[in-house]
């Protein structure tokens, strides 16, 4: 008996994009959706030999854990705001481009919002202007720079150079690094730069103030618009440029448009509808033999209690529930299965 799932698995295994390098970013931008395959009924599954069934289940685990990005109200709102900020980037001359700060609690889809916007932008720029710049360099419309704990200015510039694959990333002196990073941004005609997890910078520390000034220099000198993504940026005094900063005097506060990403609530009818629409989108994606329409929305309140409306906790919960539904043979997401799942600590300790 032929086993189409082995081939599907070979071509569609779990993808690990390293967004912090140009190769990883380009792979992410070009990755299409995985090819769909029919959901089998329990009888059809019973007809499969053991290996084929095993591969079918593994293919479903990968499929179920990777729903398409849902156009949630939070995502739409943030994308519209970024569009507005990008509109001022059309100004000629060397006026400073604005930046946007996606500032929100963990697990609300900030990285997804930034990367999905940047992906569309990248595709559009390449379609319009081609893969090569006017000077004959490879065009990189977007740079995606994920930061890590305790970033110093030197490390930040190294991260930028690593994204561009510049060989001097680990060799150049501290003074040279910034100029090299700017050269990369210029020669690749980068127009959108995402700094993810900016909360790793302590804006109250000397290192952080140095980084904050450097980010302003990037904005002054380049033709790019910046998306700064982080948790609690306002509390960390990112907008005031560190302790003792007066917001009125802060250039960051004046140049940055703040966009918060809120958890889903069920406090009004329209909020509840948005939450239910999200559940419906995720439910439609699942490949389970005994799935019944509306099963997740019937558990809307319970799912909200478990996750506090954080999309990351919800996707975790559903991934794990699906895996149990498949391995147990239940083939549906039920209250009993959801109760068996342990998810992230924040959601578990907060849920009622
Ligand atoms: N619009 C969306 N549609 C589908 N899934 C989403 C969406 N937004 C987020 N997710 C899922 O939720 C999870 C967390 O999202 P993401 O990493 O974007 O959150 P985050 O706010 O950046 O989290 P952190 O604070 O940990 O960096 C991811 O697994 C992602 O697939
Ligand atoms: Mg993130």
UniProtKB/TrEMBL annotation:
It holds the Pfam family AAA_22. GO terms for molecular function: ATP hydrolysis activity. Residues 97-230 form the ORC1/DEAH AAA+ ATPase domain. InterPro entries: AAA_22 (IPR049945), P-loop_NTPase (IPR027417). This is ATP/GTP-binding protein. It comes from Brevibacterium aurantiacum. The lineage of its organism: Bacteria, Bacillati, Actinomycetota, Actinomycetes, Micrococcales.
